[in-house]
Design a protein that fits this description.
Helix content is 49%, strand content 4%. It is mainly alpha-helical and 503 residues long. The protein contains 19 helices and five strands. Helix 1 runs antiparallel to helix 4, helix 5 packs across helix 17 and helix 14 packs antiparallel against helix 15. Strand 1 and strand 2 form a beta hairpin. Strands 3-1-2-4-5 form a five-stranded mixed sheet.
Length: 503
């Protein structure tokens, strides 16, 4: 194709209007090429026209530049100081480190994953839970002031079911544990994840009691905690990035008003595109300036500010990073191992949440009466939802959004669920998807200035001391504060591995 363009340029006539003659010569040389006389076809026009017009030279130069640009674009030659594959390898290693913690009550979590072992997973032991509880008691003893007197600075709710007291700390696996409590209280039978619990938060409201110390006799106090940076990121993905009109009004609009005061009318009204960096700035403002009249939200408030850890002796402190092992360990200590198994969690847990998210968006956000359509199209809503499922690690990042724009209008819930299940089955072969969340977190925190991340570290200081999480995690504070990101972007709803060289 480049040779043909070359012939067309050099055969333009004495003026720009002699196109007819140029095309005659152009097709003549096509015939010569087809006949095999390529050498003569290339030299003949050059020998006939030794004097080129300035316009011909200019067009020739433009054609060469265009061809080079086309070749670079199609081959996607990156300009990097480092091999992109090595960048991805480094990110995987950091992502692995983010997923592991330590049960040692005096040491911070290890930054290296545990050695691979052929032994099957085991429920967390009673001794491990006791070590965690002792760590909290030691940290509380070292504190002074109202926190050590058992006065939580933020209201919280606990659920009481028979002999169990569960502090409902958001973004730590609370929804799943509400299923367990409801299952137990209603004497349900069959596999736990075989039931459709609907709006479990409404169903379990009768169990809630606010800021109440549980009875000391015979009660087992349960709570789950989570790495602070990951919990804040998860809350952003769930409450602001995932399309939900009510959350945008309640949570995103105040963040937009503070972080982007000069926003346009549509952005102020919808606040659907609040970035993670803007959200972090708003969160810092609400936590560090108590006179700011910012309504704090339980999904974002630090863990140590809720659940009265220094006033209640928790028997079981689970970690979201070891959710399966800790959940089964608690159930074993309560003599309810029959409720759940590792295999049931592995086979149904991810799909159950994916189906719930898809059903919600089809039944609420995609309805024509939904106010969400004032801010985003149906395609954008579904693309964001697809990305949210990928960020959770349920779907591989290499699974493209399955619908063309023309197919979205007639798409049904059943049809989309089928495509999501097929994508989930294909994702089973992608062993890297378990690191999707950490990679997306790494991308998100790369947009947050160092000063703001240092303020976050200060805000979460009590969380680190109580539960042994690492304040300077490398995914949030990388060496020399350099974030080497791969090409793929989790928060660009139109980005996919189809357009990247890292596969």
């Amino acid at each position: 194709m480049s040779i043909l363009i070359f012939f067309l340029i050099i055969h333009k006539g004495r003026t720009l209007f002699s196109l007819k003659r140029s095309f005659n010569i152009y097709f003549k040389h096509i015939k010569m090429i087809c006949a095999g006389d390529i050498f003569h076809a290339m030299l003949a026009p050059i020998l006939r026209r030794l004097r080129w017009r300035r316009m011909s030279l200019w067009l020739l130069a433009m054609a060469i530049v265009g061809c080079l640009g086309f070749l670079i674009f199609t081959n996607q030659v990156p300009v990097l100081d480092e091999d992109p594959l090595s960048l991805k390898t480094k990110l995987k290693e950091a992502a692995k480190a983010f997923s592991w913690g330590s049960d040692d009550d005096h040491q911070p979590p290890s930054l290296q994953p545990p050695p691979q072992s052929p032994q099957p997973r085991q429920p967390t032991s009673l001794q491990a839970f006791q070590n965690r509880s002792q760590r909290v008691r030691d940290a509380c003893s070292a504190k002074s002031g109202s926190a050590a007197q058992g006065q939580p600075p933020f209201p919280y709710h606990s659920l009481y079911v028979r002999s169990m007291s569960f502090c409902a700390l958001p973004k730590t696996g609370t929804t799943f544990w509400k299923w367990i409590l409801y299952y137990v209280d209603k004497n349900m039978t069959g596999p736990l994840l075989s039931h459709d619990y609907g709006d479990i938060h409404k169903l379990t409201r009768y169990m809630e009691k606010a800021d109440r110390l549980p009875p000391s006799d015979g009660f087992k106090n349960i709570v789950f905690v989570r790495e602070p940076y990951a919990r804040l990121f998860s809350a952003y993905v769930d409450k602001l990035f995932t399309p939900r009109w009510e959350n945008w009004q309640r949570l995103a609009q105040p963040a937009m008003a503070y972080a982007r005061p000069g926003a346009s009318f549509i952005n102020r009204r919808c606040s659907h595109n609040v970035t993670f960096s803007e959200f972090v700035r708003f969160f810092i403002h609400g936590e560090m300036d108590r006179d700011a009249r910012v309504k704090r939200n339980e999904h974002f408030v630090p863990i140590s500010h809720q659940c009265n850890f220094c006033g209640i002796g928790y028997d079981f402190i689970g970690r979201q990073e070891r959710f399966a092992e800790d959940t089964l360990g608690i159930l074993r200590q309560l003599n309810r191992s029959d409720i759940l198994t590792f295999s049931a969690l592995d086979e149904h847990y991810e799909v159950y949440f994916m189906d719930a998210l898809i059903k919600y968006h089809f039944e609420h956000e995609l309805k024509k009466i939904s106010a969400t359509f004032r801010c985003m199209s149906a395609e954008q809503i579904l693309r964001r939802m697809w990305k949210a499922v990928q960020i959770r690690g349920t779907l591989s990042a290499e699974e493209f959004f399955p619908l063309a724009r023309s197919d979205i209008q007639g798409m049904t819930l059943e049809g989309f669920l089928l495509m999501a299940h097929l994508a989930y089955n294909r994702s089973a072969s992608d062993k890297d998807r378990q690191h999707n969340t950490a990679q997306a977190l790494f991308e998100a925190y790369s947009t947050v200035p160092l000063h703001d991340r240092q303020l976050l570290r200060q805000i979460f200081d009590d969380d680190f001391k109580l539960f042994g999480y690492e304040p300077n995690h490398p995914l949030v504070f990388p060496p020399e504060d350099e974030f080497d990101l791969p090409y793929y972007r989790y928060f660009d709803i139109y980005d996919s591995f189809l357009y990247t060289s890292i596969v």
